[in-house]
Amino acid sequence: MAVENRMDKIVALAKRRGFIFQSSEIYGGQNGFWDYGPLGVELKRNVRQAWWSDMIIEHDEISAPPGAPSSFDMVGVETSIIMHPQVWKVSGHFDLFCDMMVDCRECKARFRQDHVPTSQCPLKPSKAPGEHDKCQLTAPREFNLMFKTTLGALGTEEDAAFLRPETAQGMFVNFKNICDSSRVKIPFGVAQIGKSFRNEITPRNFTFRSREFEQMEMEFFCHPSQSLAWYQYWRDRRYNWYITHGISKSNLILREHAKEELAHYSVGTADLEYAFPFLEPGSYGELEGVAHRGDFDLRSHSEGKLCKKDGELVVELGADGKPRHPGSGKDLSYFDDQSRERYVPHVIEPAAGCDRATLAFLCEAYHEDQQPDEKGVMQERLVLRLHPRLAPIKVAVFPLIKKDGMPEKAMEIYGELKAAGLSVQYDQQAAIGRRYRRQDEIGTPYCLTIDGDTAKDGCVTIRDRDTLQQERIPVSKVVDEIQTRLKG
Ligand code: ATP
């Protein structure tokens, strides 16, 4: 399937079946903003849940780096979107979170400088910006990506505040609160899922580059001497998370950043990148970054914004010789009461995008094939092979026909599945083959059909979305069977 064709089909399916809509669509849409519909909201909730479970709950039997404890504390927080403006000055976002943009004086379009070669000029025929004779591109200018707002009624420059461009700072500024209140011991991690905002110059590629999006970030605080081993650990663990949730190895790469690419404080960063269908074959888009951030963040929030001088991180000074952006002055070091050592922990940060992960799972799941209908005639089938854990609907229940007590029995089973906490759909409209196809299209892993024999043998037919195998199982075992298959 051609690159664009496949992506267009995924976007069309997402709209048609209620996964993702353009924000404010009836008013012509709002560029860079997206709404999740009834199925999308379930899919995204399952992605979040799978991440949260992996981060917070499933850490008892792990193979940690040598010398490290085999289990460790992982806790969550939910911090505010608008934080003290000093947070962004100290973190570097106020001065440095910029993209270079260029405008075209002719057609008034705006482009990110590094996207110019892959962007299209609005003039026809389609060409890259600058390639038409009429194009008049400006020199590149800096553009800060943080959304600015004002607090309170006066609206002066002193009341300026920012919507957070990342969730991570919420964990750093609460490091002391968490240590003091929850008896965590190093190494430990603090995770958060929440909205972030970036005024992207050219939002594009569906939800991939949005202006409002959700991040799933975790800050792992550890002893400096073990930080490299933990960095390896989290890189590998995050790679495996995507694989165990259905991403194929051939579509996912772990790309270690070259030295020149690293942020000035970073000892190592690796990106997890996915072969999104809107990219040319062989190209990948970032799903998640795993960064070794050293002690940069805790030191900055304590001492003031840091910069690199003669290879060392030092507090950046203004013209008056004072810190350019002063920190909180609070001691953010950690005291180990066993080794009696005091130090500033190092941080490993896996920073994922929930919307990008959701989009990757959707793209990976999208398949077209041909299957015989009830009469044995081959029919085109569109199927989302979502991992059962991520599928928005886990099971659908159908009475074969709308009489002879079948709808009543089907409703009874539907009620039992719902009571067991499963997301389930009931459908009695149209031929059974069409009902199967409706569920295949939204990724429902199992369908149950109640037929004329059910009243006699107490069994229903369970059909598997991927193998298409059909088996008879007793009505009394339906809930157990579905739960076992979902776990398997
Ligand atoms: P990019 O280079 O694509 O702009 P980034 O390196 O700036 O991304 P990070 O700051 O590392 O991204 O943010 C962590 C994660 O948040 C990214 O890996 C991505 O999944 C997600 N993310 C970042 N920007 C956006 C966006 N504009 N829309 C959707 N998700 C985003």
Descriptive report:
28% of the residues lie in helices and 27% in strands. A 7-stranded mixed beta sheet has the order 3-9-10-18-13-12-11. A 5-stranded mixed beta sheet has the order 22-21-23-24-25, sandwiched between helices. With 488 residues, the chain is α+β, with helices and mostly antiparallel strands. It binds adenosine-5'-triphosphate. The site of adenosine-5'-triphosphate has 16 residues, from β10, β13, β18 and α9.
Main beta sheet: strand number and arrangement? 7 strands, mixed
Q: Number of helix segments? A: 13
Q: By helix and strand content, what is the structural category?
A: alpha+beta
**Shape estimate:** globular
- Helicity range of the residues? 25-40%
Give the oligomer, counting copies of the same chain as homo and different chains as hetero: single chain
Q: Which strands sit side by side, in order, in the main sheet?
A: 3-9-10-18-13-12-11
Low-pLDDT runs of 5+ residues are none
Percent of residues in beta strands: 25-35%
Radius of gyration: 26 Å
Euclidean distance between termini CA atoms: 32 Å
Identify the bound ligands: adenosine-5'-triphosphate
- The average pLDDT score comes to 93
Number of strands: 25
